[in-house]
Design goal:
Layout lengths: L12 H4 L13 H11 L9 E2 L3 H10 L6 E2 L16 H4 L10 H17 L2
Parallel strand pairs: 1-2
Helix pairs in contact: 2-3
């Protein structure tokens, strides 16, 4: 039987600030390193290791399994949040909203941001 173990990377500064960092290539912050080091103490055993191309995932792998080679899989990269990329959650609510509050203006705004997000996929 094959078992898959999915591990999320440790925290980054953007994560702690509640930013949508998707494809932004941030390193682990001190707290993120501590999270991964805590997980390492569980002594996880694996046969193969796959990571996304982002630095934070490679750092997580290096801390958890320091002597194990890994395969970088481009398809594991996080999504690009388009016009929301790098913005904090509370900024997104107000980001570029149309000043005139009509259903048509809101739909145009949503479609513009959606195209930006989908083009990064």
């Amino acid at each position: 039987m094959i078992e898959l173990l999915f591990i999320r990377h440790g925290a980054t500064a953007g994560n702690l600030r509640r930013r949508y960092i998707g494809r932004t290539d941030e390193p682990l912050c001190g707290e993120g390193i501590a999270q991964v080091e805590t997980l390492r103490k569980q002594g996880l055993l694996i046969d193969e290791l796959f990571v996304s191309p982002l630095l934070r995932t490679r750092q997580t792998a290096d801390i958890l399994f320091p002597k194990m080679p890994y395969t970088v899989v481009d398809g594991f990269a996080e999504m690009d949040f388009g016009c929301f990329e790098g913005k904090a959650a509370d900024e997104v609510r107000l980001y570029d909203m149309p000043k005139q509050s009509t259903p048509v203006s809101h739909v145009k705004w949503f479609l513009t941001c959606s195209k930006s997000v989908l083009s990064g996929m």
